[in-house]
Design a protein that fits this description.
Layout lengths: L16 E5 L6 H14 L4 E5 L13 H7 L5 E4 L4 E4 L10 H8 L6 E5 L8 E5 L15 E6 L11 E3 L3 H13 L1 H7 L7
Parallel strand pairs: 1-5, 1-6, 2-5, 6-7, 7-8
Antiparallel strand pairs: 3-4
Helix pairs in contact: 1-4
Length: about 200
């Protein structure tokens, strides 16, 4: 998906969305593991949409749901008392459609959608950066980066707020403020939010 995708497809003033954008190995999943419980304690129910660069399967060969999916069920939803899984084959798709995924999550009424990956999509992002990886800063090319979380924050000179990626309390505070201020932030994104 290119950055020319219409951001109004995913930005809604009633539901905050924040991407975590970073190069591989920066620690996106690790940070989410730390943020999610803290956000829950702050009363924020967070949905996560994660991009995978490779094929994956949550089903098991031989199970009824796998057999039905192989027979052509699309989508295939399996549910129990504890959880549900929706599997949808997408042959021929260039990449996952974030707008469709956001629309699928919205009826579940989370307080926040966190997006891991999908860094080419036009959505507000918190960039994660580790100087030791030797990678370029995304904030220098991506107007959607709203803040930078870095392991050497004092060395950064950028036009967005800089956070210490190792200061979990500061990271949580920033995300909580992001959720609280979302309606005005959404309006400020150059009219990109749908009415």
């Amino acid at each position: 998906m290119t950055s020319t995708t219409d951001s109004r497809l995913i930005l809604d003033p009633t539901l905050p969305i924040l991407g975590l954008a970073a190069w591989s190995g920066t620690g996106k999943t690790t940070l989410l593991e730390q943020l999610l419980p803290a956000l829950g304690h702050a009363g924020i129910r967070s949905a996560v949409i994660k991009h995978a660069h490779h094929s994956f399967d949550v089903d098991q060969p031989g199970k009824d749901s796998h057999r039905l999916r192989q027979a052509g069920a699309t989508p295939m939803l399996v549910a129990s008392r504890q959880r549900l899984a929706l599997m949808l084959e997408t042959p021929g798709e260039e990449d996952a459609d974030l707008a469709m995924l956001v629309r699928m999550v919205m009826p579940l009424q989370p307080d926040l959608i966190l997006v891991e990956g999908f860094k080419e999509w036009p959505l507000p992002k918190l960039e994660l950066h580790r100087v030791g990886l030797g990678k370029s800063l995304l904030v220098e090319q991506d107007r959607w980066v709203q803040a930078l979380a870095c392991d050497e924050p004092d060395a950064m000179s950028v036009s967005v707020p800089v956070l210490d990626i190792n200061d979990q309390a500061a990271m949580v505070d920033w995300v909580v403020r992001w959720v609280r201020d979302w309606p005005s932030k959404c309006r400020a994104l150059n009219g990109e939010c749908r009415p």
